[in-house]
Design a protein that fits this description.
The chain is of the alpha+beta class. The protein has one domain (8-101). Helices cover 28% and strands 45% of the residues. It is built from 1 helix and 5 strands. The strands form 2 sheets. A 3-stranded antiparallel beta sheet has the order 1-2-5, covered by helices on one side. Strand 1 and strand 2 form a beta hairpin. The radius of gyration is 19 Å and the shape is elongated.
């Protein structure tokens, strides 16, 4: 039996968002948790042939932490929209940093 483990990575990001309600930019600190995932199916047999699909490893966002205290509901929506717009860039950055450290 193969033991499977999950490695998680936390990365901190700063995001500047222009809030129309305040007519000002605010800087928000965000911690994003990532976990390594793999899309492989492992050993398989198909029509008498045996093989092994090792898959591809990739990072998947598992949590987003930021302090929304002091912001209105509309401001939170606007900030979250900017967070999600930045997520693919942040995921690429975290993946490059994680692979560089291995």
């Amino acid at each position: 039996m193969k033991l499977q483990t999950t490695a998680s990575i936390d990365r901190n990001f700063k995001l500047e968002v222009f809030l129309e309600s305040r007519n000002d930019c605010v800087e928000v600190e965000i911690t994003v948790g990532f976990e390594w995932q793999n899309d492989g199916i492992g050993p398989y047999e198909y029509c008498g042939s045996k093989g092994y699909d090792k898959g591809t490893e990739y990072l998947e966002q598992s949590q987003i932490i930021w302090d929304s205290a002091g912001f209105t509901t509309e401001e939170v929506k606007q900030i979250e929209k900017e967070i999600f717009a930045s997520m693919s860039e942040w995921t690429e950055e975290a993946e490059k940093a994680a692979k560089y450290c291995d």
